[in-house]
Amino acid sequence: MSEVKIVATLTPFPADIDAVRAAARAMVAPTHREAGCLQYDLHESHAIPDVRNLANTGAVSFVFIERWASEADLKKHVAMPYHDDFLALLDGKLESLSVQRMALLS
């Protein structure tokens, strides 16, 4: 089986930034304990609307960088009860949610 890489980006509504941040942070520790979790890092992103002005003045997002040993391990992760609880906490609080499978180009 081959490794699976995921980037998940959650962009909350401005009023819900703190709630989404707390919910996202709560996912890290239990996920790190899962078999097959090779990497599960949470980052806070501040959009830079104009690359010529590097001020972080745009939307806040939370970005998970994930690596799983196999597709089966990823499927077990999304079937965890705390993953369902996480999605329920996010309900109505996100402007956007993007989950992408990454493939290395050589």
Strand content: 25-35%
Average pLDDT over all residues = 94
Number of beta strands: 4
- The poorly predicted ranges are none
Shape: globular
The run of helices and strands is: EHEEHHE
Query: What is the CA-CA span between the terminal residues?
Result: 20 Å
Number of domains: 1
Could you please say which CATH topology applies here?
A: Alpha-Beta Plaits
Discrete helix count: 3
Describe what you observe in this structure.
With 106 residues, the protein is an alpha+beta fold. The protein has a single domain, classed as Alpha-Beta Plaits (2-Layer Sandwich), CATH 3.30.70. The chain is built from three helices and four strands; from the N terminus they run E-H-E-E-H-H-E. Strands 2-3-1-4 form a four-stranded antiparallel sheet. The protein is globular, with a radius of gyration of 15 Å.
How is this fold's topology laid out?
Blueprint: E1 4-12, H1 17-32, E2 37-46, E3 60-68, H2 71-78, H3 81-90, E4 94-102
Antiparallel strand pairs: 1-3, 1-4, 2-3
Helix pairs in contact: 1-3
Explain briefly what this protein structure is:
With 106 residues, the protein is an alpha+beta fold. It is built from three helices and four strands. It has a single domain (4-102), classed as Alpha-Beta Plaits, CATH 3.30.70.
